[in-house]
Amino acid sequence: MNHYLELARSAYVEYADYLWRDIANPRWSSYFYVLIFVSVVFFLLEVVRPWRKQQAILRKDFFLDLFYMFFNFFLFSLLVYNAASMVVVESINDGIRTITGGFDLQASNPLQHWPLWAVLLTGFVVRDFIQWWIHRLLHRVDFLWKFHQVHHSVREMGFAAHLRFHWMEIVVYRSIEYLPLALLGIGLYDFFIIHLFGLAWGHYNHANFRLPHWVSGGIVGALTGLAIGSGSFDIDLLARTGPWTTIAGGALGFATGAAVLRPLMPYLFNSPEMHLWHHARHLPEDRRYGANFGLTLSVWDYLFGTDYVPEKSGTIALGFPGVESFPSGFIQQELVGFASNDRKGNAGSGDRSAAASISDRSSRVPATSSENS
């Protein structure tokens, strides 16, 4: 027991020290400033070319969502998550070693001799697939939906809406992700790179701007070309690498991605048009538990039949039945999932009459309208 208490103490101290150094020493690898930089870029794009032009630049609850960004990505880890997760991970590893007679998750992984690019690609696809299933779980299990309602309480969509979610979602996602990713040998550095890409694409999914598919395909191609041209991530396709090959690789990658990936992008990667319907207040009966569950990739929704994008005007109502009475403040939203009140509605379930809502708040009533993270 003392071992785990010491582990929690050291994890807390180490993370506090890391966070302070990360903030006090700005650099390109600083997660704190990378998050701010990415967010500023997306904010400027929303200002320059908004999709929903009638929506205010500082939309409803914009500053609440910014606070969620700093709480979920930094304060929660500092106060609770990092120390607790270290104890849980260590206890899981100890339990596995005890039960199996010494099996080591990291040492026994099948990818330890793979090049880094293959590990990252595999980790990204596997993680995204797991997250797709977890996301569906958040919509199907009443207890989990109470927490996920915080994210679906967004009434006007923008990049920062990506950051509004209950801290219990971090616990659920990381708990279920851990074993399969650890078995694959995905380390902290690998996870950080995968996470950054997912973070940026999550911003895009929620953003109030749209990119043509040739542009988003070109961006994916350019990132690939930059990695090849620079020889990063154990990519050794070129005999020599340097600044010029990096630039050439990025340019050629963009052109190739724009041409080749353009028709495939809607079916491979999530987008604002697709994710907006995930947040729709109304969905048809066969989508009563939601639709478009992909976080970064959209391919899972098309493979499993949970895709739904009937139109792309961007003018649909967002939220869930009863969202008007959902708590609007941070503290109240953080407590709502632990309250004993029944479920008020799922994203995608239709409006109900006042009488039905009062008499049976936990039921899922068929949608009365045609269209829903």
Give a short synopsis of this structure.
The chain is an all-alpha fold. Helices cover 58% and strands 0% of the residues.
How many helical elements?
A: 14
Shape: globular
The biggest beta sheet reads: none
Query: Which stretches are low in confidence, meaning pLDDT under 50 for 5 or more residues running?
Result: 342-372
Helix content: 55-70%
Structural class: mainly alpha
How many individual β-strands?
Answer: 0
**Radius of gyration using CA atoms only:** 22 Å
Distance between the termini: 39 Å
Q: Indicate the proportion of strand residues.
A: under 5%
Determine the mean pLDDT: 83
The run of helices and strands is HHHHHHHHHHHHHH
Overview features:
373 residues; mainly alpha; disordered C terminus
Structure description:
By secondary structure, this protein is mainly alpha-helical. It contains 14 helices and no strands. It has helices at 2-24, 31-48, 62-100, 116-140, 142-152, 167-183, 188-206, 213-230, 243-260, 265-268, 272-278, 299-304, 330-336, 354-359. Helix 4 packs across helix 5 (142-152), helix 4 crosses helix 6 and helix 8 (213-230) runs antiparallel to helix 9 (243-260). It is globular. Mean pLDDT is 83; it is low at 342-372.
Outline the secondary-structure elements:
Blueprint: H1 2-24, H2 31-48, H3 62-100, H4 116-140, H5 142-152, H6 167-183, H7 188-206, H8 213-230, H9 243-260, H10 265-268, H11 272-278, H12 299-304, H13 330-336, H14 354-359
